[in-house]
Amino acid sequence: MWDITDNGDVPPRGIIKGSASQMIWPAGVALNPSDREVYTIDSVSNGMYSYYMPEFFPAKKR
Questions:
Q1: Max intra-chain CA distance, the chain
Q2: Given CA atoms 15, 45, 43, 37 in this order, what sign does their dihedral have?
Q3: Any idea what DSSP says for residue 8?
Q4: pTM exceeding 0.85
Q5: What is the gyration radius of the CA atoms in the chain, in angstroms?
C-alpha cells in the first residue's frame, strides 16, 4: 500500500503476503482506517481475513 501523495520509486508502507496471511487467492479488499484494519476475502478458501495494520494508516491526531 502506498500513500496517494507518494511520488517516484517509493517503497510500500506495508505488504500482506506469505503463509502467515492464510490467503491463497485474494479477491477483494476493504479498509477500515478508524480501527487501522484491512479486510480481505479469498476466493479459494471462501474465507474473510482481518489484519491489524497500523503501519498502513497514519497516527490519529487528537
A1: 41
A2: negative
A3: S
A4: no
A5: 13
pLDDT by residue (tens digit) across 14-61? 788 888 899 999 999 999 999 999 999 999 999 999 999 888 887 766
Q: Identify which of 39, 30, 34, 28 has the alpha carbon closest to the alpha carbon of residue 57.
A: 34
* All three cell numbers of 37: 484494519
SS3 labels along 33-61: HHHCEEEEEECCCCEEEEEECHHHCCCCC
What is each CA distance from 33 to 2, 44, 53, 55, in whole angstroms?
14, 27, 9, 11
Distance of CA 21 to the CA centre of its chain: 11
